Automatic annotation (TrEMBL):
Pfam families: GNAT_acetyltran. It comes from the Bacteria. InterPro entries: Acyl_CoA_acyltransferase (IPR016181), GNAT_acetyltra_YdfB-like (IPR027365), GNAT_dom (IPR000182). Keywords: Transferase. This is GNAT acetyltransferase-like protein. Residues 138-265 form the N-acetyltransferase domain. It comes from Paenibacillus barcinonensis. GO terms for molecular function: acyltransferase activity, transferring groups other than amino-acyl groups.
Length: 265
């Protein structure tokens, strides 16, 4: 397979039409918001694409019948030096799922991911006049440089991979946070922003779950997206009942399930 130069990235966008909003990380790489690489099949006509992101999310799209391209992808996946501490290879069609079934990807297990599409009318009908309030001792904070630094360095170091600096996260990302006595306890942030979408990432410390905090930061995140003309986006493990429940509660509608090869040692 051949690695594209930055000025060639946009040429693969037609191959992502069938994926729609299922790979925001890929759109972020193509549009230059976040780092990554784009690989295509050899030859004059581009029919298959493999996109990698700085955070370890990878995706395949286009024609799955090119054996040489598929073998190059598998070789890339099985070279540990190509990955950060984590990877997740997404496949978004049954044809690609069937194609990869015959190959072994080291240090991975096959899981199922559920994908959603945001229904803005449904959200507005449910929350248009909703007053987001918190009772003490909980306190809400929007994203700023100080909280970005704390979040990336102490709470969730993965964001040091997806956003190269606290400043970049503030400039291009979205984040909403709840603290208790200066400790982060519930967050809703964007690991990837691209193609007009902002991917949602929700974490609540276990002892504070089932108190409605995830809904509060989620509502802030969605309203922030709408004010920026961004579409909030949701995907999660199919067996994550709490995440799937929250997605539907916040106005998202399921659009499908697909396999993903998730890093596992």
């Amino acid at each position: 397979m051949r690695k594209l130069t930055l000025d060639e990235y946009a040429s693969v966008l037609p191959l992502l039409d069938s994926i729609q909003n299922k790979a925001v990380y890929a759109l972020s790489v193509i549009h230059g918001t976040q780092e990554g690489c784009v690989y295509v099949n050899e030859g004059k006509r581009t029919t298959s694409v493999f996109i990698t992101s700085c955070g370890g999310f990878y995706g395949l799209a286009g024609d799955e019948t090119n054996d040489a391209f598929t073998q190059d992808v598998i070789q890339y996946m099985n070279n540990e030096s190509n990955h950060p501490d984590f990877f997740a290879l997404g496949v978004y069609t049954k044809d690609w799922e069937n194609k990869l079934h015959d190959y072994h990807i080291k240090h991975s297990r096959k899981i199922s991911r559920t994908y959603y599409r945001f229904n803005q009318d449904r959200f507005i009908n449910s929350y248009g006049e909703f007053d987001i309030t918190l009772e003490k001792p909980f306190k809400y904070y929007p994203l700023d440089l100080d909280i970005s630094t704390i979040y990336r360095e102490q709470f969730y170091p993965y964001y040091q991979l997806v956003w190269s600096s606290a400043e970049q996260f503030c400039a291009h990302g979205i984040g909403h946070f709840i603290m208790k006595h200066d400790e982060l306890i519930s967050v809703c942030t964007s690991p990837y922003v691209g193609g007009g979408y902002a991917e949602i990432d929700v974490i609540t410390i276990e002892q504070y779950q089932r108190k409605g905090l995830a809904s509060v930061v989620g509502l802030h995140f969605i309203q922030d997206c709408l004010s920026r003309n961004l579409i909030p986006n949701w995907s999660c493990h199919t067996d994550n009942a709490a995440s799937n429940e929250l997605a539907r509660k916040l106005g998202f509608e399921e659009i499908g399930e697909h396999s993903m090869y998730w890093y596992h040692v």
